[in-house]
Design goal:
The protein is 52% helix and 12% strand. By secondary structure, the protein is an alpha/beta fold.
């Protein structure tokens, strides 16, 4: 049975209708650019910065779509009001340029002009001629253009300060500036390659996007799951489990979380399952990170004690026998550990030592621990970070000396 209803909702280029947990950043962008809606000669430049996967592209594309919509509404409304046409913008255009793909000033200028005039030829113009042509187009159409330089780190490394200086000083060529710039970067160290005059013009304001928290990631994943997956093919627990992994393993990146959900859904379909299980998530996460799970387990367990191996085996078997479980209460893990100790003729370690071993396995990255409400009180929940069948096979062979 198909689990994925619509693949589009998991594509990296998808921009949602509602942007979750970026309200402050979105409000800041609108505050900086709102004057452009009323005065086409008002320009501003600023920086949006954040690490991988925190929504820099989604934020700026969402903003671009919404500010174009607002400009259209404003333009329609003032047609019935007696206002000098020079004082009201007739059109605002947002142009999103991927600097990963376009790494020259000439290329950027062509992208901007062709967004305004699709029939403009791609060859035969110098950068200076392109600047003059853009200025003429904007004045004739009484327009303002917002240029977003996404992944600008690539452009800085390829060209240095030149493109940024030219764009940020556009008004000096045109006598009036009808062009604003949003520079989107991942690494703040990239800015050190720009000279002070360029940076001072480019960085009139700075918006930093923090990594998402687990609860924020769960909200984002739930929204994508509702739209892109079949109802009943996932549980709240699986969504939270992916969000927990993305907060730590993915450094709070929504892109990581969304791709793990998507890959887990694909794996569930390939296995012929009618829903996503935790082990599909584990395998998807390792595939995303391009890791070979069991080899990493072997490396991490190289110096483990006998009882740490027995405890990890108990956790693996617990998860294997309960494929729908993302986490297990420590009380049930303790019982499973006692059963394994009996199987291998070992006396179980005491409560304090058990906690020390859990802490060590967590430190090694083999398990995940978190506090949660359980029954009437609080307990620690344990999750295995690796495919339980592979872990069990390796540890049984290890413990039996095969």
């Amino acid at each position: 049975m198909a689990i994925i209803r619509d693949h589009r909702y998991f594509d990296v280029s998808f921009v949602p209708e509602k942007l979750l947990h970026r309200d402050d950043a979105l409000k800041a962008l609108f505050a900086h650019f709102e004057p452009c809606l009323k005065d086409p000669t008002f320009s501003t430049c600023g920086i949006v910065q954040g690490p991988f996967g925190v929504g820099r592209t989604s934020l700026t594309k969402f903003f671009g779509r919404e500010i174009e919509r607002k400009a259209e509404e404003l333009s329609s409304a003032v047609k019935y009001v007696h206002v000098p046409s020079r004082d009201i913008i007739s059109r605002l255009k947002y142009v999103h340029v991927s600097c990963w793909a376009v790494r020259s000033f000439h290329g950027i200028m062509l992208e901007v002009i062709k967004a305004i005039n699709p029939s403009f030829p791609e060859r035969g113009y110098s950068p200076e001629e392109l600047i003059r042509h853009l200025d003429r187009e904007l004045k004739e159409k009484n327009m303002h253009v917002i240029v977003c330089l996404d992944d600008a780190d690539y452009l800085i490394n390829a060209c240095g300060a030149y493109p940024f200086y030219e764009l940020s000083r556009f008004g000096e060529y045109a006598k009036e500036s009808r062009l604003s710039v949003i520079t989107v970067i991942r690494d703040p160290k990239s800015l050190s390659k720009l000279d002070d005059p360029t940076l001072s013009t480019l960085k009139r304001w700075h918006i930093y996007l923090k990594p998402y928290t687990s609860s924020q990631l769960a909200d984002i994943l739930m929204e994508r799951a509702k739209r892109g997956l079949r109802k009943g093919s996932y549980t709240d627990e699986v969504i939270r489990y992916i969000a927990d992994k993305a907060e730590t393993d993915g450094q709070g990146a929504a892109r990581y979380a969304i791709m793990v959900l998507y890959e887990a859904a694909l794996k569930a379909e390939m296995d012929g399952c009618n829903m996503i299980y935790p082990n599909h998530v584990r395998l998807a996460a390792f595939e995303y990170d391009k890791l070979w799970p069991i080899e990493e387990v072997k490396e991490k367990m190289k110096n483990a004690t006998l009882h740490e191996k027995l405890l990890l085996l108990a956790i693996a078997r617990y998860m294997k026998n309960r494929p729908e479980a993302c986490y297990a209460p420590t009380g049930e893990i303790k019982e499973a550990y006692h059963v394994v100790c009996e199987e291998f003729g070992q006396k179980p370690q005491g409560h304090t030592r058990l906690w020390q071993m859990l802490r060590e396995l967590s430190h090694l990255g083999l398990i995940r621990k978190k506090k949660a409400r359980y029954g009437r009180g609080m307990t620690s929940l344990i999750s295995l970070e690796f495919p339980p069948e592979d872990v069990e096979t390796f540890l049984v062979e290890e413990l039996r000396g095969k």
